[in-house]
Structures are given as structure tokens and as C-alpha cells.
Amino acid sequence: ENLAVRQMRFFSNHAYSQFIVLRLYRSLAEAEPKVFLAELSATLINVSIFYLQDVPDRAKSVAYAQEARDILIPLCKQAPHLQSDLDMAERVLAANKAKPSA
Length: 102
Hints:
It is a single chain. The radius of gyration is 14 Å and the shape is globular. The protein has helices spanning 3-31, 33-54, 58-78, 83-95. The longest helix has 29 residues, at 3-31. α1 (3-31) runs antiparallel to α2. It has four helices and no strands. By secondary structure, the protein is an all-alpha fold. The N and C termini lie far apart (48 Å).
């Protein structure tokens, strides 16, 4: 098996695991938002970066980054240590040349 096939398999497995984690955190955040919204937003950022760099899809990257940003804005008021996550979501939006929505 050559390197290209191994890399493709790695990206495929990585993407699949990210989407499983995303579905899990969405469910957990619905049940316990105070506990799991930060983890959900971090996973959304990871998926947005995946669509920015690994499998370019601007619309998906922007949508996931914007969703993370929307979650993080109110969270940062209560948990300032999450500011770096908010900054990352905004960097992904900027890399996609997208303006954050209100």
C-alpha cells in the first residue's frame, strides 16, 4: 500500500471519528449544556478546520466555525479561558474570507 492510500485512509478515519464525536457532543450538550457546550464548540472548530484544510469546502467550514462562534460568545463571558477557542473560530472565518454573523 502506497503513502497516498495510507494518507487518504488516515484522513477518512480521522474525519469519520470527528463526525462521531460531533454527534456525541451535540447530544450531550442538549442534555447538559453547561457541561458540554465548550467541548461541542471545540469539536465544531476542529471540523471547520478539516473543511478548511484537508477537504476544502468553504460553506461547511464557515458554517461549523460560525456555529462554534455563536456558542462561544456567551460562554466566554462566564469562562474567559475559552477566549482562545473563540479567537480560533474567528481565524477560521477570516481564512475563509467570511464575516462573522451577528
